[in-house]
Amino acid sequence: MSMTQLIIPVQLAVILLVVSVTRVSASEEVGRLFKGHCFDCHDDVSQEGNFQIDQLSTKSVTHDSAKTWSKILRKLEAGTMPPPMQERPPTKDVASVIEWTKRALADESSNRHGKGGSLTRRLNRLEYENTVHDLLGVDVPLKNLLPEDDFQDGFNTSAEALRVSPNAVNRMKSVLGV
Ligand code: HEC
């Protein structure tokens, strides 16, 4: 393998690492918000409003926890929890917890409707080309060498349309010479 061929797999590994780390910290952020702003009133001791979330897993939303998460989402979106007289959590943190919750609820719902679990969304052809350009500074038109994107409801960035077929992976890898 030549030096340039070696660099690309390393870059790809870094991308994958960044993506997975981002996922972990999103879930950690949820835990941090709860610990700092919710557990005072919603742990096993307080259970204000008969509501306890200190045992709630922040890894993902399950069938059993979906209802609880929907309630949390509603309160966070309305800005009514923590209650008005309490210290406000940073807006940015609340926003990312709202985003995480929405996505985790959507994942749970698509699991339940038998859509084959949480979908791995790959970049579409243009996104992939742009990413490679940005990361590697190479300006080759990769887009047309890659498999066609499926369109789902007119959006070629939806996870549903961007299922990763083995063929797509192979084509992406061969374009990069990996
Ligand atoms: C100072 C105490 C306090 C804090 C802090 C607090 N809550 Fe509450 N929470 C309450 C009380 C009291 C109720 C019941 C009255 C109500 O629904 O407003 C409640 C109710 C709720 C409910 C509705 C439960 C149900 O079954 O309908 C949710 C959801 C909730 N809180 C989420 C949160 C979240 C998420 C946080 C942190 C971001 C939080 N709360 C922080 C006191 C608190």
Bound compounds, please?
heme C
Distance between the termini: 9 Å
Q: Specify the number of helices.
A: 6
Poorly predicted regions are none
**What's the order of the H and E elements?**
HHHHHH
Shape: elongated
Question: What is the share of helical residues?
Answer: 40-55%
Please tell me the overall pLDDT: 79
Beta-strand residue percentage: under 5%
What is the CA-atom radius of gyration, in angstroms? 21 Å
Number of DSSP-assigned strands: 0
InterPro entries: Cyt_c-like_dom_sf, Cyt_c_Planctomycete-type, DUF1587
Protein name: Planctomycete cytochrome C
Pfam families: PSCyt1, PSD3
GO molecular function: electron transfer activity; heme binding
